[in-house]
Amino acid sequence: MSETESPPAIDRAWWKESVVYQIYPRSFNDTTGDGVGDIPGIIEKVDYLDELGVDIIWLNPVYESPNADNGYDIADYRSIMDEFGTMDDWERLLDALHDRDIRLIMDLVVNHTSDEHEWFLKSRVDEEYRDYYIWRDGRTDVDGFTGFNGPEGEAPPNEWESFFGGPAWAYDEELEKWYMHLFDRKQPDLNWENPEVREEVFDMMQWWLEKGIDGFRMDVINLISKPDSVVHHDPPTNESPMWDSIDGPRVHEFLAEMHEEVLAGEDAFTIGEMIGQHMSMETAKRYVGRDGPLSTLFHFDHVLLDNGGEIWERSDWGLHDLRGVLTRWQDGLADDGWNSIYLSNHDQPRLVSRFGNDDEYRRESATLLATLIFTLRGTPYIFQGAEIGMTNYPFDSLEEFRDVETINPVTSALENGTIDSFESVKDALRHNSRDNARTPMQWDNTENGGFTDGEPWIGVNPNYEEINVVAAREDPDSVFNYYRELIDLRADNDVMVYGQYRLLAGDHDHIWAYTRSFEDSHLLVLLNFADHDGAIELPDHELPFDADSVEVERFVGNYDPLDGELEAVGHRYAELRPWEARVYAIEESQ
Ligand code: ISL
Q: 20 to 30 A Cα–Cα from 286, which one of 89, 196, 448, 581?
């Protein structure tokens, strides 16, 4: 930092200094032998989480649910799914985590419920509850509309297609009306226009906070306010596409109310999952800026880069795109707001298979991606299994998939001839399907990777014999031990948490270079996103320090140091090996 530039104000927060580990309970650890992970299984592994060094656990939904969408279809917000255990188990888990200074955040899924939730059952038969959901008349003025499971000659209220394929409306025979579901038909959307719905949600959040949780990850929270074409019309008009539900007209008002009613005065960590692409920084700051209702958000800009539209389509991306979208967020929230840094979760393929090379350079690219996650500015997230470099699954038939988002659209496309065989889409599904993330955690090299004694609910990746926790622990060069090192470093170095990001040589075609600066400390991060060697010249005018008068040390890296590598900074020139990640610590001389 030059003397004329004053450092930006730092708003410290525990959740900025924390590392999050995401647990998908169904696939973490099974103690009952039914092939499904459970809460006692997580309790068994709390020491493992402690050894890794993470600070916060985000638990995917564990509430009572018929599991049309693996728990994202909630039938009772205040009880635990039988398959996962009991409320007692959950309380024991909370205590076990808190005993180790690990916090727990829960998934808040309130854009929709299950169609088996009491509110929805009542809403079908009881006027008082009708308005809890979005019921509308079908359209009779449209020709040629049949086959939507509605009455002959009646079309769904508007033309929206659900995120999981097919119309976003389902017909109820008794009521002779249609209800909206932006996701599966078993996930009816709540009507946030109704103040009673908001009260119910806020009460429930309060109830969980009183149980001692430390925050919420809010599922598709920017979808809760629907556009006027639906809110004020029956049947709705076709003026606005479903995408207009994103950041809808009243979303900021609803979240401000949630903040006032529930979150204000609580020291809770809140992450809004923000579906869509290209959110403006102005909107982002309304959510997560200093005066916003939430701590941070998940945007989708980088995980949609390879999205081809349909689940069996892909589009190409390059380092340019990835670096571009993530740099936009680094710069956009530099002074106000806070990023979440994730490259995978339960909805995304495995990071090493997607952004790295899961074959020849699995260890190198998995550790490079870890370096990226831990050296960008924001709270880092590890999705279970990433810390041992787990890969995508070699799916061979449609029967091996479990996810509605894969099965529904592929089945209809096969039926209506849009695709002619599973074989023709196999490679794309192997790459895109959410089920890649959901195969069981690989603990050891015994049957089923030590996940279960029974028949696992979804296949265990056959590579569990080499890629597993026991093997990773023993190998000092493993992905696991590298994650541990990064977590330790982040706990001790403010520059990793708060340092300002600055992109260097932004047009390099395979090396991503940047600095992070906090007071007089800097990190210089060099990441070679390629299967081959590469070199980079560090442009003098872009460096936030004078490269001739600094002290340079090696901070962390995924290869053994090269002779003379510390001179790289003085020479403004560095050479990197395939998927090499190298970080220097740089101090300005007094
Ligand atoms: O956009 C996706 C993947 O890139 C979708 O898979 C996903 O539905 C979207 O990210 C929203 O996700 C959340 O809400 C869904 C649930 O199925 C996901 O698991 C959840 O994370 C509906 O509740």
A: 196
Whole-number mean pLDDT of the chain? 96
Atom of ligand 1 nearest to the CA of 345: 21
- State the pLDDT at residue 8: 58
Verify whether ligand 1 is closer than 6 Å to residue 405 (CB atom): yes
Which residue has the CA at smallest separation from atom 15 of ligand 1? 72
Indicate the top mutation candidate among 163, 311, 345 to test ligand 1's pocket, ranked by most ligand atoms within 8 A of CB. Answer: 163
- How many domains does one find in the chain? 4
Residue 575 above 80 pLDDT? yes
Q: What number does the ligand 1 atom closest to the CA of 303 have?
A: 4
Distance CA 55, CA 49 (A): 9
Q: Which of 574, 579, 533, 578 is nearest to 554 (CA)?
A: 574
Determine what percent of the chain falls in helix, strand and coil, rounding each to the nearest 5: 35, 20, 50
pLDDT at 590: 66
Looking at the fold, whether 82 and 125 belong to one and the same domain comes out as no
54 ligand 1 Cβ < 6 A: no
Q: Would the pTM count as exceeding 0.85?
A: yes
Residues 344 and 485 grouped into a single domain? yes
Distance 406 CA to ligand 1 centre (A): 12
Q: How far is the CA of 381 from the centre of ligand 1 (A)?
A: 17
Taking CA atoms only, the protein residue closest to ligand 1 atom 16 is: 72
589 pLDDT band, cuts 50/70/90, is: confident
* Ligand 1 centroid distance, CA of 275 (Å): 8
Active-site annotation holder among 64, 273, 403, 405: 273
Classify residue 233: in a domain, yes or no.
yes
Task: Check pLDDT > 90 for residue 547.
Answer: yes
Nearest CA to ligand 1 atom 20: 219
Pull the structure tokens for residue 280: 């403006």
Say whether both 313 and 343 belong to one domain.
Answer: no
Question: Which is it for the CA torsion 433, 436, 440, 441, positive or negative?
Answer: negative
Tokens of 419: 């695709």
Kindly give the distance from the C-alpha atom of residue 11 to the centroid of ligand 1, in angstroms, as a whole number. 31
Average pLDDT of 254-271? Answer: 97
Same domain, 446 and 553: no
Q: Which residue has the least CA distance to atom 6 on ligand 1?
A: 347
**Domain residues for 580?**
496-588
What does the block give as tokens for 69?
Answer: 């969408």
Q: What is the pLDDT of residue 71?
A: 98
CA angle, 294 then 299 then 302, to 5°:
155
pLDDT of residue 564 exceeding 50: yes
**Banded model confidence at residue 2, pLDDT cuts 50, 70, 90:** very low
- Give the residue carrying structure tokens 């260097």: 504
Averaged pLDDT for residues 313-333: 97
User: CATH number, domain at 382?
Assistant: 3.20.20.80
CB 249 within 8 A of CB 232: no
Neighbour tally for 292: CB within 10 Å: 22
Q: Are residues 346 and 458 in the same domain?
A: yes
- Catalytic, 219? Answer yes
